[in-house]
TrEMBL record:
This is EF-hand domain-containing protein. InterPro entries: EF-hand-dom_pair (IPR011992), EF_Hand_1_Ca_BS (IPR018247), EF_hand_dom (IPR002048). It comes from the Bacteria. It comes from Azospirillum formosense. Residues 100-135 form the EF-hand domain.
Amino acid sequence: MAAKARVVCTLIAALAMHMHIAATAAAASVESARDARIFELLDDDQDGSVSMMEFKNNQMLVFYILDRNKDLALTADETFLPTDVFASIAGADGKIDTIEFLDIVDSAFKQADTNHDGLLDRQEFGALLKRVRNR
Ligand SMILES: [Ca+2]
Ligand SMILES: [Ca+2]
Ligand SMILES: [Ca+2]
């Protein structure tokens, strides 16, 4: 589970990076501002919470961005994951396909949704990022 959470955080970070969100400084206030920006990005309809659908759609976008050769599978060099984490997700074929990817996204969402209402609010999302960062 810890590995999965790390993966998702990496993907969220990748999403932020690819959308040119400022990773300008490391100060705590900047960090929370950045978290808020990421949340707003994920919350497509801006209703203040991220639904499973919004989360998945956005993570699939990250998948396609990361998948440089567009073969619908991520190889180790296309991700920024530590080797052990990558290997645990990719399985025997050494690639992360869309099903394996969505499985990770799915479990990360459920793990983050601590009140089980099928939505991530700002607090739950912030807690997810914090938990992963403190590892
Ligand atoms: Ca929403
Ligand atoms: Ca695989
Ligand atoms: Ca929730």
